[in-house]
Amino acid sequence: MNTAQHPATPEPIDAVQAMLADAGVLARHLREALAQLAEGALSLDDLIRRTAISRRTVEDLLAAAGPDVEATHETYRLTPQARDRYRQRFALDELRAAEPSGPERLELMRGFIDSGPAPSAALDHVTATPDTVLRRAEWLRDNYDLRGAQVLCLGDHDLTSLALSMVAPSASVTVVDVDERILQHIDAVAAEHGFAIRTMHADLRFGVPPALESSADLVFTDPPYTPEGIGLFATRAAECLAGPNSRLLIAYGYSPRTPALGHKVQQELLRLGMVFEAILPRFHRYFGAQAIGSASDLYVCQPTAHTRKLALRQAPGIYTHGPQSVEALEASAPAAFLEAVGGRVGGPVPSLREPGWSRPIRSKQGAPVFDLRADPGPWLLRMLLACSAERAGFLVDNNHPDITSERAQHALAEVVSAKYRLRFHRSSPDSKHAIVVADLMATPSVAGYLLHRAHGKVGNIWREALITHAEADLTKREAKERVSALAPNAADLELRLIDLPRHRIAEVLRSATR
């Protein structure tokens, strides 16, 4: 017999392993069925009823196990010879109900929250209670197979990522947030306690980092409680879901006095092709948000085959109040205002350009001026990374955190110093606004090479920079080894510079100047 043409039949336990792998985070239910079969004989009806798995799926599982399942008098069980192998391979003993987190974890979680950044009203931050955050993590652990699962937190002011790392350390957790303070706090706590959490920066109005697309088994988010906010966060989550067995979990609450608002929000999810698999009422509790009873529900949403195709066109305003709210949007600027802006930039400004850094920004004619009046803080740096014009202007609020003090101005200028020289014009063109003018630096350097190519993978761009600027010839291998030795965080080499939190951008650039 030619074994190349007739490969060996896989072992039943390997066929079961493949079925669980295909199920992803939903494999926990299949493991529960195997645990039932390991305990003793059950009828098909009892097995379905105990595990809440569809008949077709149970039949597929029994077929995959084949001779490892003993069928007698219309009952099924794992054979004595197979029982221990299945228990070990699929960690069946771990499925016993885990104890709720004790006072030690609760006190640790309280410390994480108390030492974290204060809530930002402009970003609709309302802090969840420590026991709520732990309850979220425990619910995920007890309902999904998190061994090696990719869990994404879209926004994490509540620090759900830290709680999940405590109760389910085998999960791979990623946090995306617009608030640099949150990312830096999570990085610091994770480093101190040995949590494997990856943090990335993004403003979801401008997209998600490409590394996250189709990557997540579970996405958790507690977004702004507006239809626009829910629609935007759910849309970005849909881009990140890995497949049909992935799930989106949303915290959302509304007052019983305004059911029409709840209806509008639920319509946004339905428009995305989402199915409400579960709605757990009053699951989350908060310090504040008394208009909704300081509580919100947990929505468990299942994507359909159409979800990824149903992209919603979102307006930039998604929050309930503040400079980025729906009501605060400004469509244009008067001619006299633009003329005053041009006086600072050094040339005519016919119009203001919209913000956005999903792709490199190039301009060959004149000095573009970008409208960052709604910037919550991090846009200015991202736009400086994305822009490659000889000169560019950035219109910001006069109280923008990067310009309100000499120290803040110096810190921003230092980060981009290998690319741009910055000039700050406060209270210009009027008392409410300021203009930051950036002029391109002519001196080439490794750090400048990275800053000019912020949309490439850090590892690749850094290697190219070393080869380009090395005093002696370097091979690709030598340059790669040098980058690996210099990199402050090896995982960042696979990401784009523009997607890193600000403090890690600074670390990369400092290392690149050695």
TrEMBL record:
InterPro entries: BpsA_C, DNA_methylase_N6_adenine_CS, rRNA_MeTrfase/Polyamine_Synth, SAM-dependent_MTases_sf. GO terms for molecular function: methyltransferase activity; nucleic acid binding. Coiled coil: none annotated. Residues 110-290 form the N(4)-bis(aminopropyl)spermidine synthase C-terminal domain. SUPFAM superfamilies: S-adenosyl-L-methionine-dependent methyltransferases. One of its GO terms (biological process) is methylation. Pfam families: BpsA_C (PF01861). Gene3D superfamilies: Vaccinia Virus protein VP39. CDD domains: AdoMet_MTases (cd02440). This is N(4)-bis(aminopropyl)spermidine synthase C-terminal domain-containing protein. It comes from Saccharopolyspora phatthalungensis. The lineage of its organism: Bacteria, Bacillati, Actinomycetota, Actinomycetes, Pseudonocardiales.
